[in-house]
Design a protein that fits this description.
Distance between the termini: 12 Å
Mean pLDDT: 89
Radius of gyration: 17 Å
Structural class: mainly beta
Low-confidence stretches: 239-244
Helix content: under 10%
Order of helices and strands: EEEEEEEEEEEEEEEEEEEEH
Oligomer: single chain
Shape: globular
Length: 244
């Protein structure tokens, strides 16, 4: 993996955004099995959490290019947060079947662009579509690939954010090197214990009209959350202290 000085300008005029800039990113290559891993010592909130990051794609068309996953060695248990081919996918696999799965109808195939991806989870919500919300560049995805729009059951404890290995850039503990992310990642947030919106991490730049990053000012552990983290990749030595 390589650290890159690829700056992403912040949103001028957006709340907490003026002057904020993402200064560095981390390059993942699927040819050398690049990944970051950590085994949580205890479970956090498995009903409420948020994942937010910026990505620039390096390779199109591949199945399973994971951002954050915790599947077991056989790939039959755990959460998938990835590009499946060129579709944005988020779902939980268990006992050789999907417990729930969302896959965008849109494809994201621009390798020159930065995408802000955000997943907000709260399975306690009474309305199924409120239990998982996916955003790309600030817009909530409401149109999904045919048949791939099933939501978690109410109050489900998702098989994620538990005492298991969690990986950035590969399929958790699955050792199949064919499945790896290729591209750049930046400004990676995991908020344990709260279902936030994309607007907590980005906003429309008043000058350009483009969705841009803002500085997240909240806590990464809320309520019963204990595993939250933030990776800015600004200094390789400082990020190793987080255990990734």
């Amino acid at each position: 993996m390589t650290f890159y000085n690829n700056a992403i300008a912040g949103a001028a005029g957006a709340a907490a955004g003026a002057g904020f800039e993402i200064k560095r990113s981390l390059r993942f290559s699927d040819t050398d099995s690049s990944s970051l891993t950590k085994t949580f010592s205890s479970a956090g909130d498995q009903k409420r959490f948020t994942i937010s990051l910026w990505v620039k794609r390096g390779k199109l068309g591949k199945s399973y290019q994971p951002f954050l996953c915790n599947t077991n060695t056989s790939g039959t248990e755990g959460l998938y947060f990835d590009f499946s081919g060129d579709y944005f996918q988020f779902g939980e696999y268990a006992t050789n079947n999907w417990r729930w799965q969302l896959q965008s109808q849109a494809q994201y195939r621009d390798c020159s662009a930065w995408y802000h991806l955000c997943a907000s989870v709260d399975t306690s919500q009474a309305t199924a579509s409120d239990r998982v919300k996916l955003y790309v560049n600030g817009e909530q995805i409401t149109t999904f690939y045919s048949g791939l729009d099933t939501y978690p059951s109410q109050n489900l404890d998702i098989q994620f954010n538990n005492a298991s290995l969690h990986a950035i850039g590969k399929l958790g503990a699955n050792t199949n090197t064919a499945y790896g992310f290729d591209g750049l990642m930046a400004e990676f947030h995991f908020v344990d214990g709260a279902a936030l919106a994309a607007t907590d991490f980005g906003g429309i730049d008043a000058n350009t009209g483009i969705w841009s990053p803002i500085k997240y000012t909240g806590s990464h552990n809320v309520g019963s959350g204990v595993n939250g983290f933030y990776l800015d990749f600004s200094d390789p030595s400082s990020n190793t202290a987080l255990g990734y």
